[in-house]
Amino acid sequence: MMKFQILFPSLLASLIFLVAPSAFAANQTATTTPVIVGGDLPYRVSLQRYDMATAEVPSLHSFAAAEHDGQWVVIAGLTNGLHGFDLNQSTLPDSKQNRDVWVIDPVAKTSWHRTLDPSDLGSGLTEAQVLSLTTANSQFEQIGSRLYMTGGYGDTDPLDDTQRGTFNNLTAFDLPGLVDWAKGGTGTASQHIRQIDDPTGETFKITGGDMYEVDGQMQLVFGQDYEGRYRGSLNGEYSNQVRTFTIQDDGTTLGFTTVQNSTPEDRFRRRDLNVYPTLTKNGDGSLSEALTVLAGVFTETNGAWTVPVEVDGAGNPVQADGGLDPLNAGGVLDNSTAVFKQGMNIYHSAKLGLFSEGSGDMHQLLFGGITMQEYDPTNPAADANGFVTDQQLPNTNQISSVVRDENGKYEQHFLGEYPELFADDNSRLRFGSNAEFFLANGIDTFDNGVIDLDALTGTTQVGYIYGGLIANAPHVFGNPTGLSSASGEVFAVLITRVPEPTSLILALVVMCSLSAGRCRA
To answer: How much is the pLDDT for 512?
Structure first.
């Protein structure tokens, strides 16, 4: 049985974990598109608990992550979960913020770490700089051997830990040098970290959004600017837009150029969501890169969003609503079966993308986290398809995939769940929120990091899921026995290819031929 450590919260942790919505919270749509169970997919997915042996692996969530030479680089994030919710709490213990740079080798099962704290003579950083580098829920993207990070929420005043807010920094981490430093190399951490602010005070000042490079331009998608001590009943200022910029970085001087900010719109009032790179097959056989935004929180009535948003290569967001009213006035989105309305895995979770150039289908796998619907056909409250809807948005262990076919039609499939792990009180643990997926060595991907589905054969370990929040109950808020913590668990992700029906028919024909026609229809 797994020991579940009770860790009491900082208010910072409550920013990352969902605030309990009111009983009258209204989602973007009152209905969701039925989730397919046992559907005709070209793969199956399974997770296995991965033993890191004696390697020291930190329990972290809401961190920034990169990969270098097959090793994970983990920066910032939090070490605590959430138990209870005290609006009057005003301290943020340093012990809850990850101030170390971690390097983890999942194959050799070894790890290294070193603190950025100025007390380490090898840091070379000021306390103010360390605060900006140890935020939670920042946005990050790796380009080659550099990790770029924007914003994030945390302490802003080295002398007053009640002063908190969202940072306005763009940071570049040079991974080869930083990894060597973290392993005990000479020099200082500051030699491998460069940072600038936006003079306008706006571009990078985001937490709870996401950031990806598309066609050479950075897209900073949605999120919010939250200032002051966090209170669960309040919201920050949502960006309601995509901010597009280019990075100029010659290895010495870091700069950026603003390309455009999309027009703010109410339908884009979203944070703590799953954003992912996509591919679309064009008529001439070429591929186009873009982004898709799934679900997220909160609507003006503290509900969840359900209809996806597609962001093109130029940073223009469009809600995939078929041209209907995007805010569902009069229930127009509910009444349309052509509009996809997501019900499972609606919060930021570990995820991976698969694309088939042969079929043109894009698959995004979502691992656990927080959901609106769960598959539980034995539950008396289940609908005709076996799903239970919980408007209070519970923690889940279940896995789904959102599939967009070559014609742009969406559907969602139930794929299974995490392995069963239990706390000391025999309550089942729930994983996935604010966790990250790390690609395994040797897996074929497209330029934007999406896995080449057509290159997979048999059963393949495509990567790992690490970290995130762990909870012992569907709901933590208002539950006296509901506990949460940062997770140090690692799970191996295995994809098993399922032959296409045409491949099965061809195999049968071959077998019949080899058996001298002994097969019969």
So the answer is: 44
Consecutive H or E run containing 137: none
455 in helix, strand or coil? helix
Cis ω before 438 (30° cut-off from 0):
no
Residues in Cβ contact with 286 at an 8 Å cutoff, skipping those fewer than 6 apart: none
**519 inside domain:** no
Domain membership of residue 424 (yes or no) is: yes
Residue 508 has pLDDT above 70, yes or no: no
Please report which confidence band the pLDDT of residue 21 belongs to, taking 50, 70 and 90 as the band edges. Answer: very low
Percent of the chain with pLDDT over 90: 80
pLDDT of residue 2: 52
Three-state SS at 460:
strand
- At residue 412, the 3 state secondary structure works out as strand
Instruction: Estimate to the nearest angstrom the gap between the alpha carbon of 226 and the chain centroid.
Output: 20
Residue type, 155: D
3-state SS assignment for residue 59: coil
Q: Is 211 within 8 Å of 142 (Cβ atoms)?
A: no
Read off the tokens for 508.
């049968």
* Number of separate domains in the chain: 1
pTM of the model: 0.91
Determine which helix (DSSP H) or strand (DSSP E) holds 132, and give its type and residue range: helix 127-133
Q: Where are the alpha helices (DSSP H) in 134-231?
A: 175-182
The residue range of the domain holding 346 is 11-514
Q: Is the pLDDT confidence value at 35 over 70?
A: yes
477 CB contacts (<8 Å, ≥6 apart)? 18, 19, 20, 85
Please state, in angstroms and as integers, the Cα–Cα distance from residue 208 to each residue in 165, 331, 341, following that order.
Answer: 13, 28, 22
Tokens representing 174? 């040079």
Q: Please name every residue paired with 351 in a beta bridge, in sequence order, or none if there are none.
A: 366
Distance CA 355, CA 403 (A): 10
CB 497 within 8 Å of CB 458: yes
- The domain spanning residue 45 has which CATH number? 2.120.10.80
